[in-house]
C-alpha cells in the first residue's frame, strides 16, 4: 500500500509541476515478491499496427537545442520547480522524525535508506524497531527538487547534521551546503567524510558511519556493543 501511494504521489507531482517524475527502487524493494490485481491489458490506440492519420506538426519550441531550450529553462526555474516544491510541502511527502533524547543532532536521509538507517541506529542503542529515534531525522522521500526552507528549518540550531546519501557524486549533500550557506547557517554538516563515497549502504556500512558521527558529537554514548556487532 505504501508503494502504491508513493507511485500515485509521483504521478501527481509530475502533473502539478509539469515535469517528469522519477521513482528509484533500491535493491531490497525491487526484488520483493507480492501479488496485486490489475486491469485487463488493452491494445494501444496508436502503434506500429495502428498508425496515426497524420504525423505531428512541426513545433519549433520542441527542438532540443538553444534557443528553444531557453524557454523551457525559464519555465522550469520560475514555474515548474516552485510548483513541485509547493506540492511536496502541502502533501508532506518528506517526513520529519523528532528525536526523543538527542534532538540537537540530525540525520537527513534518502527515503530508500530510512529503514536501514533505523536498523543501524538500533545497534547503536539510539532507536527502536517501531520508528522511534533519539536523533532528529528528515527523511527525503523526494530528493529532487529539495525544498530549501525544509532543509534550513531542520538544520537551524542543530549541533551537527549527517547527510546519508548513497552514491556519488554527493548531489544532495552539495545542495544542502548551498541552502545553508545562502541562509548564513553554520550548522556543521557531515556526509561522505564519514560514509563511503560509493557502493551500497547496507546496515553494516551505515552503522560504521553513524559510529563515527556519534563519537564526535555524543561522546557520552557507549558504543561498545555496536563496535562488537
Could you list some keywords that capture this structure?
229 residues, 5-stranded mixed sheet
Can you describe this structure?
With 229 residues, the protein is α/β, with parallel strands linked by helices. The chain contains 8 helices and 5 strands. The chain has helices at 2-17, 27-30, 68-90, 114-123, 148-155, 171-182, 203-217, 224-228, and strands at 95-97, 102-110, 135-140, 160-164, 189-190. Strands 1-3-2-4-5 form a 5-stranded mixed beta sheet, sandwiched between helices. Helix 4 crosses helix 7. The model has no long low-confidence stretch (mean pLDDT 90).
How many alpha or pi helices? 8
Instruction: Report the principal-axis shape.
Output: globular
Radius of gyration: 21 Å
Total strand segments: 5
Straight-line distance between termini: 33 Å
Largest sheet: 5 strands, mixed
Low-confidence residue ranges? none
What multimeric state do the chains show? single chain
* Succession of helices and strands: HHHEEHEHEHEHH
Give me the secondary-structure category.
alpha/beta
Order of strands across the widest beta sheet? 1-3-2-4-5
Percent of residues in helical segments?
40-55%
Indicate the proportion of strand residues. Answer: 5-15%
Mean pLDDT: 90
Amino acid at each position: 500500500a505504501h508503494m502504491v501511494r508513493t507511485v500515485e504521489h509521483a504521478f501527481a507531482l509530475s502533473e502539478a509541476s509539469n515535469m517528469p517524475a522519477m521513482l528509484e527502487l533500491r535493491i531490497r524493494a525491487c526484488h520483493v515478491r507480492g501479488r496485486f490485481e490489475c486491469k485487463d491489458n488493452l491494445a494501444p490506440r496508436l502503434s506500429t499496427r495502428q498508425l496515426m492519420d497524420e504525423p505531428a506538426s512541426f513545433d519549433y519550441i520542441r527542438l532540443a537545442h538553444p534557443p528553444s531550450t531557453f524557454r523551457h529553462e525559464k519555465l522550469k526555474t520560475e514555474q515548474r520547480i516552485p510548483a513541485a516544491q509547493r506540492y511536496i510541502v502541502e502533501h508532506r511527502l518528506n517526513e520529519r522524525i523528532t528525536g526523543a533524547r538527542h534532538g540537537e543532532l540530525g540525520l537527513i536521509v534518502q527515503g530508500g535508506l530510512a529503514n536501514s538507517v533505523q536498523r543501524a541506529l538500533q545497534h547503536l542503542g539510539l532507536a527502536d524497531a517501531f520508528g522511534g529515534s533519539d536523533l532528529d531525522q528528515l527523511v527525503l522521500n523526494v530528493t529532487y527538487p529539495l525544498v530549501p526552507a525544509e532543509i534550513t528549518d531542520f538544520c537551524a540550531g542543530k549541533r551537527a547534521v549527517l547527510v546519508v546519501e548513497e552514491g556519488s557524486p554527493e548531489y544532495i549533500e552539495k545542495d544542502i551546503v548551498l541552502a545553508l550557506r545562502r541562509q548564513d547557517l553554520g550548522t556543521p554538516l557531515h556526509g561522505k567524510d564519514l560514509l563511503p563515497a560509493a557502493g551500497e549502504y547496507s546496515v553494516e556500512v551505515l552503522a560504521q558511519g553513524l559510529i563515527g558521527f556519534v563519537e564526535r558529537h555524543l561522546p557520552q554514548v557507549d558504543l561498545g556493543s555496536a563496535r562488537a556487532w
